[in-house]
Design a protein that fits this description.
Layout: E1 7-11, E2 14-18, E3 20-24, H1 28-39, E4 43-47, H2 51-55, E5 63-64, H3 68-72, E6 75-80, H4 85-95, E7 104-107, H5 113-125, E8 129-132, E9 135-136, H6 139-144, E10 148-151, H7 155-166, E11 171-174, H8 181-209, H9 214-223, H10 230-239, H11 249-265, H12 273-285
Parallel strand pairs: 3-4, 3-6, 4-5, 6-7, 7-8, 10-11
Antiparallel strand pairs: 1-2, 9-10
Length: about 300
């Protein structure tokens, strides 16, 4: 059940009633979400632990509050962009006294899947709808309504929220009924981002050790794009096709050794390759040296 509309926004010569939206957490992402909401004429009430960050949004037409319970009063949706599970739980407890009937919590925070499952169950038992919607967005995406937003949990609730959530993102994807599924998939995506970013760091570091300037090393990707092979490598792993190698594990391990040796000579030890080499050694010791090097993923697909 929705609360009565209490906000008001003008569209040309027509004045339209708008529901109030509360937003808790005015970091870079939350602040730009609020600015985008205000550009669409939404009535927004904001709170942040550091009050100055919330008050700064008043220049955009938001109304700032010093207490989260006051910020959520009269709101039909309460959005959160906080730091972690602990912050979400603490702020929601502080805000709870201000929740009205039918309020929906919409949490964009990157949290653990385990914590999200517990949180969703807790608020369901309290009669409050909890919707987790983590995002793959930079602050500019939040301002422009681009990027990706995930959602999981009760399908009917998601369908009811989808028209409003769609305005906040470039792509909204429902990933299943388990409340924690979106949290888990968000962590998968961030793991991939971290892995290839540190891989780029190692590539540039090895280049520097070899006397290859960063710009020159980066230019390699203009004509050699390893990203195009991700789909094929993933298919090989999922198919379990390791006995028909395109790159034998022992040969990949040899290349890892060469990389580490050259980096050490140049005084720039690598960050991620030593861990990869250790995993390769584990699988070579198990007798998979002549298999395709993607065999290192065999134990996570069975």
């Amino acid at each position: 059940m929705r609360l009565a509309a209490v906000g008001r926004a003008a569209y040309g010569d027509v004045a339209m009633e708008r529901d109030v939206i509360a937003f808790l957490g005015m970091g870079l992402l939350g602040s730009n979400f609020v600015r985008a909401l205000r550009r669409r004429g939404e009535a927004v009430q904001v709170w942040n632990r550091t009050a100055d960050k919330a008050r700064a949004l008043e220049a955009d037409g938001a109304k700032a509050f010093a207490d989260p319970a006051d910020a959520v009063r009269g709101a039909r949706r309460v959005h959160l962009t906080l730091s972690d599970d602990g912050a979400v739980d603490e702020v929601l407890e502080r805000a709870r006294a201000g929740f009205g009937e039918g309020v929906i919590i919409v949490d964009h925070t990157t949290t653990s899947a385990t914590g999200t499952a517990v949180r969703a169950k807790c608020w369901a038992e309290r009669g409050v709808a909890f919707q987790h919607t983590p995002v793959f967005m930079a602050p500019q995406n939040a301002l422009e309504g681009t990027g990706f937003m995930l959602a999981s949990g009760d399908r009917a609730r998601f369908d009811a929220l989808a028209p409003e959530l769609t305005k906040m993102t470039g792509k909204l994807t429902y990933v299943g009924p388990a409340p924690e599924r979106a949290a888990g998939i968000k962590l998968l995506g961030n793991l991939f981002l971290m892995s290839f970013t540190v891989g780029l760091r190692d590539m540039l570091g090895l280049g520097k050790a070899l006397g290859i300037a960063p710009a020159e090393a980066a230019s390699m990707l203009e004509w050699f794009n390893p990203g195009k092979t991700v789909g094929a490598r993933l298919k090989r792993i999922l198919d379990g096709d390791f006995v028909h190698p395109s790159w034998e594990l022992v040969m990949a391990r040899k290349d890892a050794r060469l990389m580490m040796e050259e980096a050490e000579r140049g005084g720039l030890p690598l960050a991620i390759i030593p861990a990869i080499a250790e995993e390769m050694d584990r699988w070579i010791a198990k007798g998979h040296g002549k298999d395709d090097w993607t065999v290192v993923a065999k134990d996570v697909i069975g």
